[in-house]
Amino acid sequence: MFEGFTLERIDTGEVTLRVRHGGSGPPVVLLHGHPRTHTTWYQVAPALAADFTVVCPDLRGYGQSDKPAADEDHTQYSKRSMAADIVGLMVALGHEQFAVVGHDRGSQVAYRTAMDHPERVSKLVVMDGVPVVEALERCDSDFAEAWWHWWFFAQTAKPAERVICADPETWYNAWTSNGPDQLGPENHADFLAAIRDPATVHAMVEDYRAGPRCDRRHDEDYRAAGRQLECPMLMLWSTKDDMEEIYGDPLAVWRPWCPGIVGHGIDSPHHIAENAPAELVQSLQEFL
To answer: Which ranges carry the AB hydrolase-1 domain (predicted)?
Structure first.
């Protein structure tokens, strides 16, 4: 995977991230979702590297990146903390301004990076995600049925980690819908190593615990202040997932945050980078 890319660990200030980077041209950072690692981009990053300097980290808590202990408000796993990691990483690599692409949980880190650090982010792409506060305020029985794990992970009375770690490969469908034929053998091996590590599972769950707590407050504060995203923004979503079923027009959810947003669906299940890499690369190249 990632021929011609460099794999290293980089100190971002508060944590050290495992990072793969390569290519040349304008910098773009690709942020994975749950429960993936940076290797989810193994078909996308090399295709972009002919035109861009591509940076693919494991998010804080995920894969082989640092997993700090969390406080009662789970602020160490807030998207604000993760966004600060991304800025620290890109500055360490010599990039003062850069584009950000995020999928799933990574989409929340991506838009938080653009909101908190508008001087740093030149363009923003979110995939299969809406602002945390928008998701929570739209929650109904359909959302709860489809995304019940949000609430299971977020509560702390009966820690989800104990259930997941009892049989992580079954929990994450590691030999069925997330098997090596779907993920590719090397990407699958990295995914397996992550979900088999109890510390990683705990940190991934902490990411969700931050959602209805500090992440929601950060969104509410910006919305109350009338803050909007300042950079050009593209949204992409998987048409074989449930974004349209839950939200109708996903772009309408984002317009109060970015009136000039553009976007479209891609004929793919949820993990677009693995299931429809060619279509994703084309969309990213045209926008970036």
So the answer is: 26-159
